[in-house]
Amino acid sequence: xxxxxxxxxxxxxxxxxxxxxxxxxxxxxxxxxxxxxxxxxxxxxxxxxxxxxxxxxxxxxxxxxxxxxxxxxxxxxxxxxxxxxxxxxxxxxxxxxxxxxxxxxxxxxxxxxxxxxxxxxxxxxxxxxxxxxxxxxxxxxxxxxxxxxxxxxxxxxxxxxxxxxxxxxxxxxxxxxxxxxxxxxxxxxxxxxxxxxxxxxxxxxxxxxxxxxxxxxxxxxxxxxxxxxxxxxxxxxxxxxxxxxxxxxxxxxxxxxxxxxxxxxxxxxxxxxxxxxxxxxxxxxxxxxxxxxxxxxxxx
Length: 300
Hints:
- With 300 residues, this protein is mainly alpha-helical.
- It has helices at residues 2-18, 24-44, 70-82, 86-94, 107-118, 124-133, 141-163, 166-184, 199-210, 267-272; strands at residues 49-53, 56-60, 232-235, 263-266, 275-277, 284-286.
- It has 2 domains: 2-228, no CATH class; 235-286, no CATH class.
- Helix 3 packs parallel to helix 9.
- The longest helix is centred in the middle third of the chain and has 23 residues, at 141-163.
């Protein structure tokens, strides 16, 4: 799975370098997210699980807990978000990844904020941690410059996106793309494939688009192809969690997905719906859910 993850990620970055409107970028990012999901199962699950990978269902068994580090998790979450794969994004958001190993300071916290949004929790605490990590007084060199030019501008984007102010979001998003491009194409960094594509900004562009905000992609950071992804997301009629159309049983509440018509929604509608705590397990559940996704307690 790690080889699939790296191959798809590098292919997405280099395709972006050639043609940011190439639709294969979206499929490659979807594969990155699915591979990260598979690695999360290997690293954190207690029993085998059937997942979708490159268009087919695959059974993945638990294994090494070191397979998925914080950076790989963050990349997978952003890739799933950018490709409009709500089902994988939610599964990754709920994976028990506690360490930020191999990630530049702030990068893990930024992704954790998106993960909190996907799962109905507050994005404030991880955003505060992300900003703290970008303090220029606590770092030097590459890490300091990365925090100021890549992490901090992305934090501003997600804050304006959550606020829903179109003009403020537009300005923050434009500035973040510009700073990302200027950082990576500075002297000595121009050949780094990491700088061909900003996964956080691509993911936030997809979310902003679903909220109806004005988004302009830049060949320096965000592929235009993500703005052409179909906006419909399918959710289980029982627990209101997103699923893939190849799945027959809900991964969360085990409901038969063919028994009732799925709920057709969008990423924006899903993220914008308020949550309520389950009276038994306390997990946040979407307001329209009939059962808790975690313990299947009736919410009606």
